[in-house]
Amino acid sequence: MPDHDDATRPGAPGPDDAPVSFSEQFRAAVANTGIARVAPGETPSGRALLGAVGGVRGLAESVLPGFAFLVVWAITKELVPSVLIPVAIGVVFVVVRLLQRQSVVMSFAGILGVAVSAGLALITGRAESNFIPGILINAVWLVGLLVSLAVRWPLIGLVVGFLLPAADDGSHVHWRDDPAKRRVLTVATWIWVGLFALRLAVEVPLYLTTQVELLAGLKLILGVPLYAAVLWVTWLLVRTVFVRRDDAPAV
């Protein structure tokens, strides 16, 4: 749990405090990703997978707005209710979290995305514009992953490295010295490239041909279910080259 006393919180501004390094910031960001639910070498579980998608509530927050858009659009073909009802659902999730004094960071991020999508659709008057932000986000991730592979620093390797204890020199990239680990983490990164490439290959043609209902339905399938499947495969791959000390055979 975060410490609410800013005067004693590590990294809080102060006359004698050094600025938080990029390495520390990146490690903190990695710790909040879905892949961090299973430590490298640990056996993945259904509980960890559910936690990686935010639990039952997180799953509902991710799926229900898109499902609501699909249902309302399929029934009414009316743009305004189709994009505003998902926003209302997102607001309800945020309010419930506030009333229960729970973190609303992810809920706010989700409703922001839904609101931006709704705004674009209302401004353009086209239902398919609701999917532009998602397409752009997938494109950015795809480019980022490909760049990391091109420079031989696979992104999944960087993420996994920061989930491991630092080496003697304080770095988190000692996996690069092991050809087997580097190869597996490169393959894992290519799998994530496949996820984002598949989404774009499916969604962009449907967007261009204004097949809104099909686009909305396939977006749901290519969302959390595909993400969960790729995450599980990533965990299994990583486990093949990172063995936890308590899993090692006794001598």
Features:
single chain, 251 residues, mainly alpha, 65% helix, globular, disordered C terminus
Individual helix count: 10
Order of helices and strands: HHHHHHHHHH
Report the major sheet: none
Averaged pLDDT: 85
Report the sheet-strand fraction: under 5%
Radius of gyration over C-alpha positions, nearest whole angstrom: 21 Å
Determine the fraction of residues in helical runs and give it as a percent range: 55-70%
How would you summarize this macromolecular structure in one to three sentences?
The chain is mostly helical and 251 residues long. Helices cover 65% and strands 0% of the residues. It contains ten helices and no strands.
Can you put this structure into words, describing what you see?
With 251 residues, this protein is an all-alpha fold. The chain contains 10 helices and no strands. The chain has helices at 22-31, 46-52, 55-76, 79-99, 105-124, 132-150, 155-161, 179-208, 212-221, 224-241. Helix 3 (55-76) packs parallel to helix 5. It is globular, with a radius of gyration of 21 Å. The model is unreliable at 6-12 and 245-251 (pLDDT under 50).
Question: What layout of secondary structure does this protein have?
Answer:
Layout: H1 22-31, H2 46-52, H3 55-76, H4 79-99, H5 105-124, H6 132-150, H7 155-161, H8 179-208, H9 212-221, H10 224-241
Helix pairs in contact: 3-4, 3-5, 3-9, 4-5, 6-8, 7-8, 8-9, 8-10
